[in-house]
Amino acid sequence: MAKEKNWERRDILSIGPKVRVDTNNPQIGGNGSNVYDFYAVTDNNDICLTGLTEGGTYRVWCDKTIEFIGGNKDASDGVDIVIAGMSGDITITAMRNGAVKIKGKNIVIEADEDVDIKAGRNINLDSKQRVLLKSSRCEVKGLLGNLIPDPQQFGMRVFEGSFVGPDFLSGISGLIPGVPNVLGTAADIAMGAASGALSGGVGSLIAGAADVALDAAGIPIDVDDAIHVMKSASDLKESISSIVTDK
Questions:
Q1: What are the distances in angstroms from CA 40 to CA 15, 46, 65, 87, 243?
Q2: Which pLDDT score, from 0 to 100, does residue 140 have?
Q3: Residue 212 pLDDT more than 60?
Q4: Which of the residues 28, 109, 185, 232 has an alpha carbon 20 to 30 A from that of 97?
């Protein structure tokens, strides 16, 4: 059986037509009944409500803007406003299309463990002097962009974890003019396959590229050594063919 509400304890003090203090309201809300509510309303029916609930929550509700201003007459360089969560989180949310803005001469974000920044679209860093990344380990992961260290970005990702190592890919990309088109991007791979680059087998591909390099730049390429780096020519052909198919 629900506990009967004690309306005799309730006391309402009206201070004019726009302000009142309501104490011991027995109506149950989301955090229990109210210890007190300080209620004020404007001529346009904009309401401001502050109060304490039996659950221990102090709340401030306002239909319009809330301002916190401190330190107007403080001559020191101390702290003017303190917001501290002793055991829980602190959440600041801008609903609708609002922005959360933090502005100051210097801004410091410090965490004992991790700092995570997530964006649904872009993250922009704009500095007038420099942007410094300092850590024992810095990593960049992506498909495109001038921060990706190797120009054959797509090719490196394709053969990642396979028997074709990055040393082999980077080596032939600088010596054989035809291979970067195959290892560079997905479009290049498709164009290379369409032109029949793979029709003669991987051995003929490397041999043909070696001939081109020898004729065009005078660079001697040992075809046997290049093929020997791979596990087998058929395995490489199968790996590349799996990329250019629609499966």
A1: 10, 8, 14, 32, 68
A2: 84
A3: no
A4: 109
